[in-house]
């Protein structure tokens, strides 16, 4: 019996004695030399599309776009596969290395997703179609940079364009209108409001950091008040030429700690979940909440017209990003049709559809009939952030390990297990180890 | 029918072939493949690079990983040692008291086992929340100073996760031990009592030796559960606060699926497998020796 096991083990080892990954193609993919934009003349095409637009307004707009696309180009059939964000993230890697890969995929911008796919040559650069369809005229560079990589996938935020997003998102401040008469116009006024809320016995800034990442957005917002977009962009894209150990970053870390010291956060925030925290805010507990536009629908439902949204007042930068961009795989047999599809779902008409289904369109914002109430605040805020060129990426984009490094480091900082100096040293170590390569 | 079944040996192997094929395809092959992958630096997509044993060297050298293995060992106390102690007391009481509705109590005690771990984790996350039931109770009895965000506290997060494990495993252990105790012949109790043994002496002289086998099974199962803890940590703390509840299984998932370090993840997995193998082998050796 023992011998058999050994034999079976040996057999299985020899059977697998090839280098992992040797079955898949590699090397940067190149775009075809000529581009065709006359989608109706491409003949009979079937496109397989993978997206994660499965919830409420997202699903509604996608269904509408595909219907309109197929009506306009009857020769192109869309085979849509939609999965939740988490499912897409875990299955896309395998799907792209298989021979039956989809044509159009929605890939997360970060290094561990899009960056890896670019490195493996699984996504094709879209620059030729971008100039043919003139995407650059409607999408500002501060938005397109989130889908740019160098051909080897090493540099993020510069180089070829590998995807085009439909929607935008931005981190700002939600405030309870029954407690804040006039939204603060400057950072100093904002901090004064926090103090006032504390004196009044309310939770000044609703916050729950059990999930590790929520503090990234709060710290990012504080940092935005002290650091210029160029600095943060370099750090957040993990490009060389910046450093974490400068006085303004130290100041941001110290301010965050002082907020904790002053009792601006609820008690036991490191043990409170993200969802329970914003739900508390939705129940009217808490004056402010620093969070992204993704909470719009939920908070609207909970607080109705009692909730407002504003960009961090008077800050030098604004943290935000794009929804997952759509890209074309190297296995696509008809990339021109795939590009036509991407162009269609990001066209001015598509932006209108996005608006009417309750999404935040990333382009042509000024041309939209801005909705009322909270959604209107968010439209205005995002438009300002994009137009002013202050938009900076999320700090955890920086390196493949930064999400964990900064999440754990912020928990340490807020619990006083680390000084602001030690906190910054930890981030610097992660950043320089990666960007120095 | 000249030879016993299974003779000659070659024919004997034929009998186990179907099982062996399944075992090989779903257990030995993946295990071999994991060992193989652990020798490479591979991102899961592009061509891997052979790096020999350096992934293993990193497992030993990486202070964060060593801490993760340390946390897993702490969890053994909560998953295995405490449930066995509590289980012994509970089972003895249930057995001796001959309570009405023993089946009912057995079901109650066993109930945590039939709930999916993710559900358990979500429920306990709520219990431990800063305004959760646990803190409410503490405040109600005047222990305000003890109330805290349990899962976000550096000193208490790991024990808090461990207590969930204790709650979860105690039922299994108790039911196992009850089954063992039910097999003890009544004469032995009688003999012990005639010799003048009280309940405590009876427990050590009669009950404990009789359920050694069950204890070994319980310890093996719970130790394995402790070392491979993943879902509980993933849902409750994601390894936080800081890294104070990180465990090896979580690192395997994290490296393979989030960081794209498949080789390193495989190396941790192989180390974990060996650790589990060694501990369970030790437990079973110990149990065998004492029953022999």
From TrEMBL, chain A:
Signal peptide range in chain numbering: 1-17
Stretches the record annotates as Disordered: 18-37
InterPro entries xref list: SBP (IPR006059)
GO cellular component: ATP-binding cassette (ABC) transporter complex, substrate-binding subunit-containing
GO terms of molecular function: maltose binding
Pfam families assigned: SBP_bac_8
Transit peptide in keyword set: no
Domain of life: Bacteria
Assigned keywords, A-Z: Signal, Transport
Biased composition (Low complexity): 18-34
Single biological process term from Gene Ontology: maltose transport
Family the UniProt entry places it in: Belongs to the bacterial solute-binding protein 1 family.
Record's protein name: Extracellular solute-binding protein
Organism the protein comes from: Kribbella sandramycini
Taxonomic placement: Bacteria, Bacillati, Actinomycetota, Actinomycetes, Propionibacteriales
UniProtKB/TrEMBL annotation, chain B:
Compartmental location: Cell membrane
Cellular component terms (Gene Ontology): plasma membrane
Bilayer-spanning residue ranges: 12-32, 68-91, 103-124, 154-179, 200-227, 262-283
Membrane association type: Multi-pass membrane protein
Gene Ontology biological process terms in this record: transmembrane transport
Presence of the UniProt keyword rRNA-binding in the record: no
Pfam families (alphabetical): BPD_transp_1
PROSITE patterns: ABC_TM1
Annotated keywords: Cell membrane, Membrane, Transmembrane, Transmembrane helix, Transport
Coiled coil (UniProt feature): none
SUPFAM superfamilies named among the record's database cross-references: MetI-like (SSF161098)
Principal subcellular localisation of the protein: membrane
Domain of life, source organism: Bacteria
Residues covered by the ABC transmembrane type-1 domain: 69-283
InterPro entries recorded: MetI-like (IPR000515), MetI-like_sf (IPR035906), UgpAE/MalFG_permease (IPR050809)
Family: Belongs to the binding-protein-dependent transport system permease family.
Protein's recorded name: Raffinose/stachyose/melibiose transport system permease protein
Organism this protein belongs to: Kribbella sandramycini
Biological classification of the source: Bacteria, Bacillati, Actinomycetota, Actinomycetes, Propionibacteriales
């Amino acid at each position: 019996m023992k011998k058999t096991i050994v034999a079976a083990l040996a057999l299985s080892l020899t059977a697998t004695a090839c280098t992992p990954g040797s079955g898949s193609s590699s090397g940067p993919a190149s775009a075809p030399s000529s581009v065709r934009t006359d989608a109706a003349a491409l003949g009979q095409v079937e496109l397989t599309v993978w997206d994660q637009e499965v919830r409420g307004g997202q699903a509604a707009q996608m269904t509408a776009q595909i219907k309109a696309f197929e009506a306009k180009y009857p020769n192109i059939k869309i085979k849509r596969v939609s999965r939740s964000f988490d499912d897409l993230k875990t299955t896309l890697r395998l799907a792209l290395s298989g021979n039956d890969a989809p044509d159009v995929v929605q890939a997360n911008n970060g290094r561990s997703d899009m960056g890896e796919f670019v490195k493996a040559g699984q996504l094709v650069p879209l620059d030729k179609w971008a100039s043919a369809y003139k995407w650059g005229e409607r999408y500002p560079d501060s938005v397109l940079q989130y889908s740019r990589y160098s051909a080897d996938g090493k540099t993020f935020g510069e180089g070829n364009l590998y995807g085009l997003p439909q929607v935008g998102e931005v981190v700002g401040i939600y405030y309870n209108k029954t407690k804040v008469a006039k939204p603060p116009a400057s950072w100093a006024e904002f901090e004064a409001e926090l103090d006032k809320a504390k004196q009044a016995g309310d939770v000044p800034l609703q916050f729950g950091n059990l999930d590790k990442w929520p503090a990234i957005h709060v710290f990012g917002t504080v940092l935005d008040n002290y650091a210029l977009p160029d600095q943060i962009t370099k750090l957040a894209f993990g490009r060389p030429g910046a450093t974490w150990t400068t006085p303004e970053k130290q100041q941001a870390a110290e301010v965050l700690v002082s907020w904790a010291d002053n009792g601006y956060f609820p008690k036991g925030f490191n043990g409170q979940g993200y969802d329970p925290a914003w739900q508390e805010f939705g129940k009217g507990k808490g004056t402010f909440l620093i969070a992204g536009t993704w909470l719009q629908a939920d908070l609207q439902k909970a607080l109705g017209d009692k909730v407002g949204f504003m960009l961090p007042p008077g800050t030098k930068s604004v943290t935000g990003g794009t929804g997952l961009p759509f890209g074309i795989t190297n296995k696509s047999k008809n990339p021109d049709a795939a590009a036509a599809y991407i162009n269609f779902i990001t066209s001015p008409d598509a932006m209108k559809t996005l608006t009417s289904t309750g999404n935040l369109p990333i382009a042509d914002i000024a041309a939209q009939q801005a909705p009322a109430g909270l959604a209107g605040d968010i439209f205005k805020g995002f438009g300002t952030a994009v137009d002013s060129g202050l938009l900076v990426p999320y700090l955890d984009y920086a390196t493949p390990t930064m999400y964990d490094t900064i999440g754990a480091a912020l928990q340490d900082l807020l619990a006083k297990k680390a000084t602001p100096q030690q906190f910054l040293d930890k981030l610097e170590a992660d950043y320089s180890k990666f960007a120095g390569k | 029918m000249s030879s016993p079944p299974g003779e000659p040996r070659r024919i004997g192997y034929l009998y186990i072939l179907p099982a062996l094929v399944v075992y090989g395809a779903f257990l030995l092959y993946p295990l071999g493949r994991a060992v193989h992958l652990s020798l490479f630096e591979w991102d899961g997509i592009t061509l891997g690079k052979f790096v020999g044993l350096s992934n293993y060297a990193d497992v030993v050298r990486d202070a964060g990983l060593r801490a993760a293995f340390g946390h897993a060992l702490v969890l053994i106390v909560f998953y295995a040692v405490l449930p066995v102690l509590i289980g012994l007391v509970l089972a003895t009481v249930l057995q001796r008291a001959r309570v009405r509705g023993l089946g009912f109590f057995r079901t109650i005690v066993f109930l945590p086992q039939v709930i999916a771990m993710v559900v358990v984790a979500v429920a306990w996350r709520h219990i431990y929340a800063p305004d959760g039931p646990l803190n409410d109770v503490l405040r109600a009895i005047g222990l305000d100073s003890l109330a805290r965000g349990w899962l976000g506290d550096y000193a208490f997060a790991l024990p808090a996760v461990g207590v969930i494990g204790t709650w979860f495993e105690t039922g299994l252990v108790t039911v196992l031990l009850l089954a063992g105790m039910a097999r003890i012949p009544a004469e032995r109790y009688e003999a012990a009592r005639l010799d003048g043994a009280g309940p405590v002496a009876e427990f050590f002289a009669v009950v404990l030796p009789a359920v050694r086998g069950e204890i070994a099974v319980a310890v093996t199962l719970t130790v394995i559960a402790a070392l491979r803890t993943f879902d509980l940590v993933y849902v409750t703390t994601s390894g936080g606060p800081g890294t104070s509840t990180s465990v090896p299984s979580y690192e395997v998932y994290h490296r393979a699926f989030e960081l794209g370090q498949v080789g390193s993840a495989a190396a941790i997995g192989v180390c974990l497998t060996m650790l589990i193998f060694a501990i369970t082998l030790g437990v079973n050796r110990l149990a065998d020796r004492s029953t022999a």
